[in-house]
Amino acid sequence: MKQTGVVILGATGSIGRNTARVLECHPDRFRVVGLVARCNTEELARQAMLFRPRLTVTTDPERLPELRAALPPGLETATGAESVLELVTAPETDMVLCAIVGTGGLAPVLAALRAGKRVALASKEVLVMAGEIVQRELDTSPGGSLIPVDSEHSALFQCLAGRNPDELRTLWLTASGGPFRDWSSEQIAAATLEDALAHPTWAMGPKVTIDSASLMNKALELVEAHYLFRVPPERLKVLIHPQSLVHSMIELNDGSFIAQMSKPDMRFAIQYALTYPERSAAGKLPELDFSAGLDFDFRLPDRRKFPSLDFADEAMRRGGTLPAVMNAANEVAVEKFRRGEIGFSRIWSIIEQTMAAHEVEPQRDLETIHAADREARVFARELR
Ligand SMILES: NC(=O)c1ccc[n+]([C@@H]2O[C@H](COP(=O)([O-])OP(=O)(O)OC[C@H]3O[C@@H](n4cnc5c(N)ncnc54)[C@H](OP(=O)(O)O)[C@@H]3O)[C@@H](O)[C@H]2O)c1
Hints:
Layout: E1 4-9, H1 14-24, E2 30-37, H2 41-51, E3 55-58, H3 64-70, E4 76-79, H4 81-89, E5 95-98, H5 106-114, E6 118-121, H6 124-140, E7 145-148, H7 151-160, E8 168-175, H8 185-189, H9 193-197, H10 206-214, H11 216-229, E9 236-240, E10 246-252, E11 257-261, H12 267-275, H13 308-318, H14 322-338, H15 346-357, H16 366-382
Parallel strand pairs: 1-2, 1-5, 2-3, 3-4, 5-6, 6-7, 8-9
Antiparallel strand pairs: 8-10, 10-11
Helix pairs in contact: 2-3, 4-5, 5-6, 6-11, 6-14, 11-13, 14-15, 14-16
The structure holds NADP nicotinamide-adenine-dinucleotide phosphate.
């Protein structure tokens, strides 16, 4: 079988390292063509020695000398956006797994789709900020496709496979509810960074862990699902499921549900996106153990305590640049919280104020999106 050439964007992060673990289990099936990250040159060098890609890229030019010094002769290194674009569009690249946190994944994902590549997408920001542009790119791409890596979207993608869209009533995204699920509003207002980082079921990067505590993660995922599956906001709903075993489900028009479940481990969704449409037993992923009994709880979220889902509804309904503004305001607010400048609940009011101040424009091109993103960041940073 011809090996599939893979480029990993954000190789050093939580998703990136899990992707490396999956690829290590499939040495005959995949060949790593390129690795891209920004600051963590130690992990980048470790993976480069393991996979021996054609090119290893740090997007931070100041880190290039230390990356170069960490690698033996014969392993090429580079920096800069152009090197990333060259890698994702190269003839030997069949698939791009994008796990860059923030806005850095946008341009390479669009370039990869334009070049007809398969994109395994973990970075929520890409569809949240530029969902309409991504849809246009997919509609005109010569064979490019998008396979979700976010566990909820992977679950929905699997449940929807081969199904007639007319049968569909609702897509239900599950959420663990995060560490503050059962806290009062007063307790949440006084939460520390350590409290917000103590996720009950998933091990993830710090930004996405804080987003899980505020339910902004679910807000971003609703917008992501809206653009990925082209489903209107009223057909997207959220259910709190503390055990994180059911990763999402679809409700059909006769009232029956189809769900996807597994242990909460991102390697399931990563491996499925890499091997799709096949499944692989080579990954040795953890099995569910029913011997001691398993509980499955489901309940509707408390929208008064967690206003994030209302922000998502508004962003989806008004569309254009508003989802990018919601995302930018959240990133600024989370940074402020991490630096100890604001309390946890202030994250929500910063997002609300920034969205209210924004004049929505259509998603004409990436520059419109970046301009709205910049403007929202300046506005949100000024808020105390
Ligand atoms: N973690 C999860 O379980 C999970 C689940 C679903 C979706 N996601 C989504 O997947 C994305 C990644 O999440 P994560 O938890 O893996 O984040 P993370 O652990 O913080 O890792 C982020 C990665 O992005 C890289 N990066 C950041 N800015 C970059 C830039 N300008 N150029 C190149 N690389 C850059 C980082 O490189 P350095 O560290 O080297 O600077 C790192 O490799 C996010 O969009 C998140 O919402 C994550």
